[in-house]
Structures are given as structure tokens and as C-alpha cells.
Fold these 3 entries.
Entry 1:
Amino acid sequence: MKRILTLALYPVLSTIACDSTGSEAESDSTDTEVERDSTDTEVERDGLRPTLAVGEAEPAASTPLRAKALGRMRNAAKYFHDNVARHGGYAWHHNATNLNERWGDIQLDADQIMIQSPGTADVTIAFVEAALADPATPALKTYARDAAMALRHGQVKSGGWRLYADFKPTPTLKACYLNTTANCSCGGCKFTVYDDQVTQTALIAMMRTDQLLGFADAAISGSSAYARARVETSQFPTHGGFPQGFAGPVAARPALQASYPPSIGTSCGLANCYANLYTTEYWDDPTLNDNLASAFVEMLYWAKEVYPAQAATYGAMLTAYGDFLRRAQMPQPQPAWAQQYDIQMQPRWARSWEAPAIAGQESQDVMWALLRLYQLDPSVPANRDAVGAALAYLETVDHANDTLIHRYIELDDTSPANVGFYTVNPNGYPVQFSPAPPTYQNYGWVVPSQLAAIRAEYDRLASDTTVMKRSCQKLRADTAQAVDTAVNNERWITTYSPGGPRSGATPGDYLDTATFVKNMRTLAEFVVRTTTDCVAWNY
């Protein structure tokens, strides 16, 4: 149940690599060499844009921070690839003093990797962006391919990916694998997983690696093509939404407008009137759970960008998905989104603690997705308009000085109480919505409010539909932090106090994949943009 703002904040690096002259100028420098001419005070300046005199040229893109960023990026990539990878893939957390202690949402052995974010798929994307930023270092392409091949190993016959991959001749993390020993009889083994953005992120990684390698690697190209063909048949025809996953093509559904469940406004209570009445499992129904909306948009965006011969197909899928998101918006007085919908496009139960309700986290993600769709195609103003209506409502229900929003908000079609939902019965559905302390702890009942950032992007897009980027000032600050915190100029350490499903982990210093990915992508972005729109910030 993670939300790492990687897909909500639009991708800044495209297939365009940085200026080759700028890269080549740095190519013979080691990290130690480029630091000789810099001082700590230069790195720690206050981040304000330097003032240029009238007629003064922008400084050349070979001054200290960019050189340091290149050095750290190369060193960190090499260390992570050479020391941390197992079979080319990665866990979420790696014990810094015993790299054989590896954790995802479970402990992994040396033959097991995480696909789910922040795992091997995210590392692959980070290597791709580093390779595009620094074409003078061909090893970065090798690292990206190795990680992508690890993803390929975990691909399942239904087309996409599951949470893990296992490289043992007889895998203990079983799945109906496409390219290795398959077990297709275990529960769920045939199922391609969209939940937690698993397949979306893995396919983005595979497509971008295919493009990076010039579509010349048959294994990578074949994996991407196999997955895309099956993704195309997993979008509900006519309806436009996607299920939580699939084992084969999905059937058409009617394009209905979302509505309130029949129990709303009655006296019998949500749980008594509206539970266990479904003809399908929740994972086969349209879902927005765990921020899937922006993940689907980005997956289809990259498919359209990377494979222009099929742009019409992926463009039509994007359009259909935007239509679904707008139809999934609940009517007044709560024009936001639920986590899960049934065949009637009414909010439905999923797991016993996931109620038919307005979903604060998922509603925020849908708004990011709709704004991204509008940014990509301003000829559909309805996508932005839907966000305006949702903001007007949700800005009245976030709390703690507008910093938090409930994961679930009680449905009410007459006078919403806007009560955050917590209480869960151990063996069944909750009796009522309540502000009582949660009884199920391993879940994000309250999430950070992103409404101010969404409002800012909504306002910006009224006059500027270019892609959203970090400001040069923020990018420089983030880059300086990544540069300054790299241990031995090659790795980032996170102190880890394990808990929950990882309570058996050894406390101490870990190499955290999420931190590696965040810093690598920041460094790559800085290297690129200090040759384009952020030249003056390279000091």
C-alpha cells in the first residue's frame, strides 16, 4: 500500500539524451578528480538562482555540481549493479554489512527478487534514465539490460508480472512463468497483477529499455511485445476501465456513470444492505486501488511514445481510460472517486476492511491522472473540469491544517458526514463508519493531502500545458543532497528499524532501493537539464 510519487509527478526525462558534447567533456573524469576544484561552500550555497549581468552568457555546463552529479551517478550505478544485484534484480532493502540479507515484503533468498515497486522495475528505469543522461558511459546500458532481463525472467504467461521472480530451477515463489520453470496450478499463479502498479511499472521499464537498446535486443523486444498484446485485451471493452489483474482477455462491460449503492439513504446500514451480493470477485472488477489510475496513464503514454507504429491503438486506450475515469466520478454531493466498483459502477467492498466509500488516496491519484491526460491532450477539457469539481469537494474534507485526508470517507448522497472510516471486524465487514482507532494496523488509514499541489497544477494548466517539472531551484537542492549524502561517493545508507512483516530483519544500515532510485533519477535529470533549461543552476 505504497504511494511513491513517481507516477503522479509526470516523467521529466524523455528519450532525448543530454547534449553529447557536455557528456563527453566529463567522460574522463573520476568522482575524485572532479571534486578537487570544488569546495563545500560552493555546494552549500542557498540555492537562489545566480544573477547574470546584462549581456552575460549563461555559464558552461561543466561547473562543479554537474560534474559531481555525473561522478556519483556512475559510481552508484556500478556499485548497485556489481554488489547489490542478484541475477540482475533487486529487493527493497539490502543489509549494508551483509548484502545476502535482503527484504521485500518478505525475506528473499539469493535467487529471489522483487518486481513490485520499489523493486527491480524501478531500478531498470533509473538505469535507463542514467544511460540517456550519460551516453559516454556505455556500462549504464548494460546495467539497464541486466535489470530488464531479470524482469523478463519473472514475466508470466498471461502477459505481465507478479510481485516477485524466483531464479531457482524449482522456484519456491511459484508462478506460471513464461521464460522459466512454470507452476500454473497454484492459486493466483496465472494472474498478471496490476495492483500496486506491478505490471504497469515493469512494462514501462521493459519498453524504455527496448527503446534505449534501439529495438535490437530480441529478448527485450519480445518481452515487451508479448506483454503489450495482452495488456490490450485487459481493458474492459466499451467500459474503458481495468481490473486489478487478469489471466486472459476481459469481457465488455457497459459504459455506466457511477452512482451511489442502494443502501445509501436507507436505515438498514451500509454493511447489512450492501455486502456479499457480488457475482464477481473484486479483483475482476474495475479498480483504482493503490493509485492505479496514474500508473495506467503512464504505461499507455510510454507505449504510445516508444512504439509510434501503434500510437493509434494506445491513444485510443488512453482516451477510453480517461472516459472511464470521468464516469467513475461520483455524483454530487461527493464528486470524488471510490477504490473499487462493481458491474453497475457503484462502489463495492473489496477486502473486509476496504469499504464502498469515497477514497481519499485514490481520488488524489485520479486527479493527477486526469490532469496528465489534459496536459497530453488539451482538446479534452472535461478531464481538467472533473478535477475542478473534485477539488471543490475534497478541499472541504481534508484536515490537520489541510495536511491529511482519510483513506475512506463515508458515502452519503444527501448530507455527507465526511467521517473517516477506521473500524474493522476481524471476521467480517465493519458495522459502521467510525472515527475510533483502527483495529487493523498494517494499512494507510490516513494519508498525506496532496490537494494543494493538485490545485496548483490545475491552475497552471489553465494557461500552460507543458509537462510539469521540478523547478531548477528544487532540482539543484535535491541534487546537492544526493551528492552530499553518498557514502564513499557510491551508495546511500538508510538506517532501518524493521517492523510489521519485516520484523525479523536485522536493525541497522541498509541500501534502500527506493532511495537509490530517487537519487539516481534526480542526478540524471540534473545532468540533462543543466544543458537545457537549468544551465545557470550548475554552480
Entry 2:
Amino acid sequence: MIKKSRKITLKSLKTPLLIGTAFVAGAACTYLSSAQLKSLPALATSEAKAADDAADVTLDEALSAAATESELVESDGQVEVNEFAQDQDEESSQKSAAKPNSENKIDLTYLTTFIAEMTTFQGNSVEADVVETANPEWEFDRGSVLADFEGRIAPEFRVPELLKDRVGFWFDVYTKWDDNQRVIHHSRYPWIVFKVVNVTSIIQNDTPRRLWMRREKADKVVKAEAEGIRQALRSLTRKRPGAPLSETEKIVADALLPLGGDLRKQASRALGEVRIQMGQKNFFRGGLEVSQRYLSTMEDIFRRNKLPMELTRIPLVESSFNKHATSKVGATGIWQFMGNTGRKFMVVNDVIDERRSPFKATEAAARLLKENHLILRRSWPLAVTAWNHGPGGVRKAAKASGSHDLGIIVKKYRSRSFDFASSNFYSEFLAALHAERYSDIAFAPIKREAPVDLQVVRLHKAIRVKELLRVTGLSLDEFLLINPDLSGVAKRNLPVPIGFRVHVPSQVRSSLDKLFAIGGETKAKRDT
């Protein structure tokens, strides 16, 4: 049966169509399917094989840039930024201040597995005001989605007028372009797109035999295209009005047109701002599939802390909800906590790393976001930006720009640390939030993973993992699947310390009740 194309149009809303691309900051981190998670030994074998093909290769810097958190303390009832918070601001710079280009390298061992499992959706190009979805027969009005036409998002997270184009840019990469499409664009004004290069034919070719070689070849092609854009910009800086333009020069000039002003000056400014962005649609879709294992419990945690449930979508930006994600600077888990920040809220040492536990990290994230919100004038745009840049850095940016309106700050302020990653983080979050809340419109039907029913047991005494396995009947792989924070303890056969919280399937809780006194945490939880 042939289905007719459908298009949702809400002209009565009179919302402008937003054109742009989007990026999942932690998308280069891993995604593991349910099948893989059920067999960790088999997964380890497949990863070893993938490692041979997936050497470190050149990709967009932003793929490995993880958001940064900040540290706060309470002093005499007042929440203040202290020296530790300043250290976290420096930690933020370490994570996000790398130059926005595609020169950096990341480990693609897990990424290769992720790509192999995800379906890469392709289709013919569509008009700029219509978003291409996983189903080429389905089109929707992007402007209406970003205007939240069905009221699915809290009013405090409406897209600000000054950030509409920027949010539209990130929304497109989440919903329109996959990882085989590289967007050459203006880094200061990301929605100014010069060219989209599709490298699918290179990546899916039989030669070269190694995947990393095909990726390297694709990178060279994209870099050559970017250099062609720079050459056109150089030429435009010398062109007199009315002078004939080459085909590439015309494309670049048309792209710069929305910025207004003198073309030669705009070309000169853009010359040092050419950036390559990888599409993220397939990664984002994978994040939507796995996120259902966590979101209901994460939302409960945020409600208990009187925080908006919308904030639980930050991991879509940070890691695509991959609990094994580790950035090249050490940010870890679905929330991508750095080490110093993690130690303030969780157990993080040589053998235990609670940053890897999705729900323990969510509890820590709730506390940190609440603190940021209190410090930064109860502004969620500033508090979410501080997740990436640190509250001290956001305060500095607000002072330098003379405003606490994030749209104005992003427009006026730029520094070595408050660069591409920091200035775009809140826009990425809003784009991810709208893409997730309207995923039934933006994507073909998604096979979402079911929540896992677990309970939390606080140990009454120190006990080795082997004993826990004997009592619960779980295999080591099954135990580490739901307690990834204890992998170091298990590998060294060390005792789990007294008072530590362990996750177990609900059906084996009674076995532990016979051994341990369950202290105050009897409510069932869903975890992995």
C-alpha cells in the first residue's frame, strides 16, 4: 500500500521556520543495545574485533567535548562559589575549551559498535523549511515543534527569541542529518550553513577494507570541501559589489545573506569561523531507545528534589544515555561528571565510581543543578549553561555582557573558555528536549527499551561480590550490568563497603532480606 506524504502545518501559529543543525555533545561515546547488555563477554569479544577497525580517527571536536559541571559549598546558610568551584570552572574549560574544529581524535571502539547496530536512515534532500525524518514520507513543520504547539514542555523552557536560530541549528542535526552527513557552517552563527557533505558512499564502500581507513578518507574529502569554502570566503573579501561570482562563491554569499551588512566584511569575519559538524540523527535515535530504561525513575528523583522533569533530558546532549560513556578528558557516565565534581556528590575512587550508575549520578545531578539555580538568580538558562561552564564562568560572562539574559550573553560575549561548546550548550539542550518530546513526530516509530525493575539494598556489612552473586543467583555480568559502579571492586575481588547501596532485581530481594538489614530504602527502583 502506498502512503501519501503528510505534512503538519499550523500556519495559525505564525512561527518562523528555523533552519540549522544540531549536535549531541557526547554522541561519540558508546551506545549498547539490549542484546549486547545481556552478554557482556560476547560484547567484549566484539569490541576487541571492532578495535582493530576503529583506531583513533579524526572527527568533529564537539563529539568528544563533554559538558562540565561546577562545585559549590554552603556557608552560613548561603550557597557560595568557593575555591573548589573555581577549580571546577577550570575543569569546565578543560572539557569544553578545545578549538571547534574536526582535528581532534576520539576512540571509536564503542562508536563503531553503535554505528553497526543503528539503522542509518537516508533519503532525498528536502526543502530547507521541512525537516527530513527517518521516514521519508513523513514531514513536519519544524517551527511548530520548536514553538511547542501541543504544550508538551513547561513554559520556562520555551525557546527564547534570541536563541531560535541557534536551537534550530542543533535541532536539525538531531533530527535531520546522520553521522555520514557533515555540515560545514559558521561557528559564531551556527545556523549559517555553507554546505552539507554526504560521505555515505565512502563509508559504505567495500574499499578500503578497514573502516578507520574509510573514515579517514571521508575526513579528507570533507576537509577539502571546507577548504574550498574558505577559498571562496577569501575571494569574497576582495570582490567589489556586482562583480561576477563563481558557483561556490555564490553559495557562500547566499549563506551569509541573513547576517546582513557588507558582504566583504562578513566574509572576512567568517573566514576564521568555518567549522565541520557531524550529523547525529542515528545517535540521537539510539539515545531515545535506551533512555526509557531510566527516565521514569530519573523524573521521580527530580520531582522529589522539586526540579523540572525537563532537565532529565540533559543526558541526551551529554552521552545519548550511554552509561559507559567516557570522554577523552575523563567525564564519565550518562551525566558526564568530571572527577572532582563527582567526588563531592558520590563515591569516586580507584575501585568504585558511582558516576557510572545512572540513578546515583542522577541524584548528584539534581543537587548540582539545584545549587547552580540558586546561585544564578534562579535562571534555568544560566544554571544549565553552568553545567557546562561552571557558575563562576557564567557569572563572569553575565558581568562582561552586562546582562543575565543568556541570549544577550551568547550574542555579546566570547572568551577562550566561553567558546563554541559553552555558548551553545543550552541551545543544544532545548533542541534535544523538543526533539525528545516530539519524537513521535520527528522520527519513525521507535522501539523503546522497557524499564528494568530493580530495588536498592543498603548493605548492613561489608561483603564480597562473589557472596552477593551466590545469594542472589546473578552472574557477574548480570550484577555489573545493574551495578556498573562496582566493576573495579568485582575485578579485584574486594569487599563492597558497609552502607553501600547495591541494585538488585526485585525478584531476588527476598534472598538478601535474609542476610541484611535493609536500612530505610525499601521502595522499588528502576535502574541499570
Entry 3:
Amino acid sequence: MFRTTLISLFMTSAMLATPLAMTHAEQVAITIDGEFEDWADVAASVIDNKGDGIGAVDFTRIWLADDDRFLFIRIEATEDFDLSDDNSILLYIDTDANAATGITVGGIGAELEWRLGNRLGTFNHNGNSTTVYNNSIRFRGAPTVTSNTFEIAVGRDTLPDGSNPLFTGTEIRVLFVDANSGDTIPNTGTILSYTLDEGSVPPASPISFERPTPSTLRVVTHNILSNRLFDKQYQQSFNRLYTAVSPDILHLQELSNYSASEATNLIASWFGGDWYGAQVDNGNSYDDCKTISRYPIIGSWAIDGNLAVLIDTTESIGTPILCINAHLPCCDNDYGRQNEVDAIIAFIRDAYLPDGELTLDSEVPVMISGDLNLVGLSQQLVTLVTGDIQNELEHGPDSPPDPDGSDLHSITSRQTEKRMGYTWRNDPNNYAGYWPGQLDFMIYSDSNLTLTRNFLVYTPEMSPSELAANSLMESDSLVSDHLVFCADFVPPCLEDVTSDGTVDVSDLLAIINAWGLCLGCDEDINEDSWVDVTDILLIVGAWGPCE
């Protein structure tokens, strides 16, 4: 059970009498992935009044948690902002709970001042200041797009100046300041104190590379970084990575100097058998998206520089699949990204029209995969999931992209052995680069496709036993700054009410809990508006793995 206590004490220090907000929480398993369900049992450490910040950022709540590797912080504001750009937010951590050491601010003595909008900070030890970067303190933050809520991790075993530890005790103090709005959390005159190391958290359960069933459709996306797939010094690592995950469909980005045919021949030389390839064929040598498939490719189309491929996956999932392999513009080019995602949604909309170029049936799944470079405004992700086109004059009306007229589902994944959801990492040694984040996505139609497993491969964080079991080397993932992102799919399994890939007791219990009149609910398997014995019989008849 997690608990948070807020009490008013007064420091007996000769410096100043200051209220102390003391929080205590057992360690908790937090995954830094931009989702917040794992914070459900963590009480807010401070709740701040709305409207006390004049400007862009008005803090409302802060939560604190930890495990053996990280201090976790969740911060909330009234309006969306960008955590890594265009803000003047400062995070102060007093890691020895001693106001007489470190940087004096808000009644604490902070050993760390982290300037989020600049992506760098200052470590103060015994009066000596060192400029530090995200790799110096293992800083992590999610999501990578604008939001009003973020989760942050700071490494507990780091040596920011190369010699001295950041954390020296179990009591710490935390303060956020927005230099533009003037808002702070906690408010001026209150100190937020937190105690580390109460309780324990088991390691993350390893995610197996093994397919749930032989007929599972496995899709992989990977930005290979500047044509490295054909660089002899990296090819063996790529071979090991792809052999370990054994994709059916492989979406590659940043492969601009080689054709799909050359890439297909290389993959076939590693796996054997027949392979098929597709690329954007518009004469532009910089179009870098290539898709390689075990299954025949029915057709391919260009969407700006992105690639749409219709693949005959009937053998696996009973129907073809429409795949969009996308590599969107980088960095601060929100306009360019939005224009391309508008075009993608317009293509999907038209693909299912009766008089369209593809005239696909609603049973055909659609999936958007690739290095989407989703930083900056969150609208681009909203458009891809919901079909909310921004430039309707050029791209036509909004259109929910799932063939059943609903939203698509974006997969939130994690590394096989660590609670981290970043897909891109390029640790800077001496400059203010971006911290690791999710740039790669798989977004799919869950009305006609069921996700059974997903994971990210980052070999430096894998155990020796898992590396050996998958014939990998610790350095293999370092061939690119993007991680291999893998997801497994099967045809829809209506009896799998809990969507975990298996029809079992959990689905039976879900049926019982929803018993009776139930309009449009998943538990009404035969769609007669009632959850009753008929649905139970369907569960029993489909018992076991979804296939």
C-alpha cells in the first residue's frame, strides 16, 4: 500500500522557519513510457492551487516515487507544454536534505539544478559547480510531445562530475520553478521532502522473443541510421538482431542509398526462402523507407516520401494488411510533420472508399509504423490516431482511420528487461542533446487485428543469459540510435475479452462481471445486447490461445 503524508512542521534552523511537506512511499514499479496507470496507487505529494502562475506553466500536482535505480517524478500543469523545448522550467533536487550545501533556492540546498528547456543542468558539490547533460544523470522523460502531464526519471547511482555521487542519503527535497510564470511547486515557503528506499521492487519480468503461436504475424520497424545496414562493420549486428526477432514484415528507414531489391536480397541471404521488397518509386533518391516482407506484396504507393504497401498476409491473419512505412520530418518541423500525417490519413480514408484506388474491405487491417519523429506538438499523434486532419482544404475531411470508423491504437511498449519505453537514444557527452524518447511508433486498427506481444530490443540493458539465449551481443543495438521495435498480431478474437491473446479464466470473469443488458460492450460476444449464457459458451468453445 502506498501512502503520502502531509504535515506542517517547522525547521528549527536559525535560517528560517519553513513548513515541511514530508512524503513517504514504498518503492513502486514505474515504466517511463508516457502512460500513467502505474502511478495509480501513488498519492500526489503536493496539490497546488490553479491560477497562481502567470504565464505558460501553472503547476497543479507533483508525485514522487523510486526504485533501486531511479527517482521518479510526475509533474502536472493546467495547460500543455513541451518538456524538452521552449520552457523555462527548473528542477531542483537537494540530494542530502541539507540547506547549507548546494545551490540555495526556496529554502533548500540543491545539489542538482536541471534546466529542462535547455536540456542541461548544474551539479554542485562542496561549492564546485559542473555542467551536466542528460547522460550524466541518466535523465529520462516522457512523453516526447506536448502534454500537461509528464513523468521523469533521474538515475540514483550516477556520478555527475565523474567522481562524486548525485545521491548521498535517503532523504531528498524537490522543487520545480517556472522562471516565466513565477509559479513554483511546492509554493514558496513550503519544502517537499521525500524518503527513498522504503520497500522494494522486483526486476522487470523479461519479455520473451518467442512468438506466442507459429501463425502470429510479427511486424518490426527499425531506423537503421544512415544506410548502416550495408556497412560491413555493422552487418553482423543487424544480422543477429533481425535473426533474433525473425520478422515477417520489416519496415526500414534511413535506407536511401540502396534499393528495396538490394535490401531484400540481403535479408533473404540471412533467412533463406522467398522475400519481397517495396520502396517509394518517384525518382527521389532521398526517399528512405523500404519494406521487406516474407509475404507477397500486392502493391505499393507513395504518400509524399512515405510508403504504403498492401501485403498478402492471408496465410497468417486471413486477410491482406495495409502497411504505412513512415519517416516524418525531424525536430522542430511541426508544419512538415502535420502535412505528412494529414496526407497519410487521407490516403487511408480513400483506400477504403468503394470507388477508391484500393477499395479495401473493412476486414483488411491498417498499420502505421516507422520513425515518426513525434516531438513538439502532440497534434500529429492525435491526427494519426483519430483522423483529425488539420489542413482539410488540401487533404479533405476528417476520417477515423480504423476501418470500423473508430480510432487506431498506438502501442506503448518497453524494453525486454527494463521499465523504459524510449525507442531512440543518442547520449551526448558534452552538449545539450535530447534525452532518450519514443520516436518510433506502431499504430494499428484494433477492430480487425489483435496485439499479442510487443517489445523493444536494447542489448546493453539485457542480461548475459538473455543475450546468450537469443544469440546477441551486448553492443548489437548500438548499430543505430533507434531500437528494434517488435509487435505480434493475430486475427480478431472476440472471445478474448481482456485482449491478452488468450481465452481463459480472466475472460470468463469479465463475462460474469458484465452479466445482463450490455449495449455495445466487448463482453457481448454475439452482439445481441445481452451478456448471458450464450457468451459463456462462446468463451468455452474458444478456450486457449487466440489463433
